[in-house]
TrEMBL record:
Protein name: 1-aminocyclopropane-1-carboxylate deaminase
Keywords, comma-separated and alphabetical: Pyridoxal phosphate
Chain ranges passing through the membrane: none
Lineage, opening ranks: Bacteria, Pseudomonadati, Pseudomonadota, Gammaproteobacteria, Candidatus Tenderiales
Membrane found in the keyword field: no
The UniProt record lists the keyword Nucleotidyltransferase: no
Modified-residue entries (N6-(pyridoxal phosphate)lysine), positions: K41
């Protein structure tokens, strides 16, 4: 079983802010890697799905919220590659499903809702046994798809970029993509993660745990979460609207909008030296735009 990505372009942004700062900003369009298994999620699944098959599993179970890009991608991948999928969803079952969860259900994913209290202890033996009793044997994929095999896949993103750059940046939710970039850089150049959830200091430990070597060429920005995971503000939405109008590039309010807003803010404040080239990952997640309605 081999998962092959579509080639994805690198887009150069042209903007008065960038010209004044003397900074070049490139966007790696991972949102085009697959129409449904999108962005960084494709790379996280690249080695996990073959591993599940090689180990004899027919079912893949994972975790996420009601707007999870990972749940969306896993459901599509399960249908495309012949796996049963189970999505363990944070919170009580709603009266009506979000568009993300409707899509997952329509792809054949079985949805299982856990109270927030139980979700916080999802690694507890009692919870795990309950899941195995209901769904049988399954390949366990962590929340966000972030494990060692996901890091291996995301490390290849660095090699897929032909252009020279000084800093590579990504939105950061569970830490797996950033850990992959750090591994792929292997101490050369720098990586920046923009945390999309509030109070995310734990991401430092998460990235260190997922990264084999003790690299110090990376940093996480904790100041551009806009109130927390999947939360927005008028300022964020205004930035997205202006950005999309200027560059004809769609963003989502959960991940890529916060990443690009953070980079523009940091550039305006002189956080990057003149002559620097930044490479930002457009990690997809555009299915989450349905939440703007």
């Amino acid at each position: 079983m081999v998962l092959l990505p579509r080639p994805t372009p690198v887009q150069t942004l042209h903007d008065p802010l960038l010209e004044r700062a003397g900074v070049e900003l490139l966007i790696k369009r991972l949102d085009r890697v697959h129409p449904l298994i999108c962005g960084n999620k494709w790379y996280k699944l690249k080695y996990n799905l073959p591993a599940a098959r090689e180990q004899g599993y027919e079912t893949v179970l994972s975790f996420g919220g009601a707007w999870s890009n990972h749940i969306h991608a896993l459901a599509a991948a399960g249908r495309a590659y012949g796996f049963e999928t189970v999505g363990v969803i944070r919170g009580e079952a709603p009266r009506s499903l979000t568009p993300t969860l409707r899509f997952a259900r329509d792809q054949g994913m079985r949805l299982h809702f856990l109270s927030r209290a139980d979700y916080r202890r999802k690694h507890n033996a009692e919870i795990v046994e309950r899941l195995r009793t209901e769904f049988g044997d399954f390949y366990w994929l962590p929340e966000g798809g972030s494990n060692a095999l996901a890091v291996r896949g995301c490390a290849e993103i660095v090699a897929d970029v032909d252009q020279a750059f000084d800093v590579i940046a990504c939105a950061c939710g569970s830490g797996g993509t950033l850990a992959g970039l750090v591994s792929g850089l292997a101490g050369r150049r720098r990586a920046l993660g923009v945390a999309v959830l509030k109070g995310a200091t734990f991401l430092y430990d998460a990235v260190r745990a997922l990264t084999a070597a003790d690299y110090d060429n990376w940093h996480i920005d904790l100041d551009h979460h806009y109130g927390g995971y999947a939360k927005t503000t008028p300022d964020l939405l205004a930035f997205m609207h202006e950005f999309e109008a200027r560059h004809a590039m769609p963003l989502d309010q959960v991940y890529t909008g916060k990443l690009m807003s953070a980079l523009y803010d940091l550039i305006a404040r002189g956080a990057f030296a003149r002559g620097s080239t930044l490479l930002a990952l457009h990690s997809g997640g555009l299915q989450g735009r349905a939440g703007l309605a």
